[in-house]
């Protein structure tokens, strides 16, 4: 990094990176890959332009692989991070975790079909408020490591380490979160929940015995409180903060 003074978030990233690298070497998983937000093709950088990923060493034959623009859409490990917030391990094509993982056969096949030198890894998915998903991967190109035993002993600590690091990366990219209280009415939440479930204004009115203009009024007021314009943006923001669920 250059002489540009680091922000508090950047200092947390640097400290976290050193801890992650040191722990990886100590447990036999020295090759590190990180992603702060799998929905974004742009890597997190420090203010001087240095990519956060440059702080780590990963397998040489994977350099171009990790630069693929559609990696987040094609990679099996990234796909699994979308579905679980618990750490898991990869061991010569076998994927496991604290609980039994129901993984589609075609996804398992994709995970074993990558021609890279990585033999085993532990992955810590991180799901942050607002729908942000990141991950830290500790890996090795050595065939002799019993990664399952390492997982059982260290997965919980690695997950906390990854949480702190990805949170710091997110703050570096977007600033520290501004935590505030939203005072919604019961009707506003009811309308938001039904809108998130895919109901139209007319259907919401029928379910709640409200006139359509009244439904729109409640959704508009909810949007104003969230600082959003439009029905879709309002529902997305409310869902990201956990006020409603998009699950039917």
Tell me about this structure.
The structure is a single chain. The termini are far apart. About 3% of the residues have low confidence. The chain is elongated and about 70 Å long. Helices cover 47% and strands 12% of the residues. The chain folds into 2 domains: 167 residues, Transcription factor LuxR-like, autoinducer-binding domain (Beta-Lactamase, 2-Layer Sandwich), CATH 3.30.450.80; 55 residues, Arc Repressor Mutant, subunit A (Orthogonal Bundle). Helix 8 crosses helix 9. By secondary structure, the chain is an alpha+beta fold. A 5-stranded antiparallel beta sheet has the order 1-5-4-2-3, sandwiched between helices.
| Strand order, largest beta sheet | 1-5-4-2-3
* Structural class category: alpha+beta
Largest sheet: 5 strands, antiparallel
CATH fold description of the largest domain:
Beta-Lactamase
**How large is the count of helical segments?**
10
The CATH top-level class label of the largest domain: Alpha Beta
């Amino acid at each position: 990094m250059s002489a540009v003074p680091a922000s508090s978030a950047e200092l947390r990233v640097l400290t976290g990176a050193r801890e992650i690298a040191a722990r990886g070497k100590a447990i036999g998983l020295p090759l590190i890959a990180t992603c702060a937000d799998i929905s974004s093709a742009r890597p997190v950088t420090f203010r001087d332009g240095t990519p956060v990923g440059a702080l780590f060493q990963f397998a040489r034959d994977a350099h171009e692989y990790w630069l693929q623009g559609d990696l987040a859409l094609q990679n099996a490990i990234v796909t699994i991070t979308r579905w679980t917030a618990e750490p898991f391990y990869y061991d010569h094509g076998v994927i496991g975790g604290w609980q039994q993982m129901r993984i589609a056969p075609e996804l398992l096949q994709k995970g074993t079909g990558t021609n890279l030198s990585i033999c085993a890894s532990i992955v810590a998915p991180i799901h942050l408020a607002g729908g942000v998903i990141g991950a830290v991967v500790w890996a090795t190109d050595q065939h002799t490591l019993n990664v399952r035993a390492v997982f059982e002993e260290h997965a919980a600590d690695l997950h906390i380490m990854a949480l702190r690091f990805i949170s710091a990366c997110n703050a570096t990219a977007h600033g520290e979160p501004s935590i505030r209280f939203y005072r919604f009415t019961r009707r506003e939440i009811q309308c938001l929940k039904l809108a998130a479930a895919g109901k139209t204004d007319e259907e919401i009115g029928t379910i709640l015995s409200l006139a359509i203009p009244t439904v729109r009024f409640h959704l508009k007021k909810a949007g104003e409180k969230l600082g959003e314009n439009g029905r879709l943006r309002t529902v997305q923001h409310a869902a990201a903060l956990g006020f409603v669920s998009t699950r039917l």
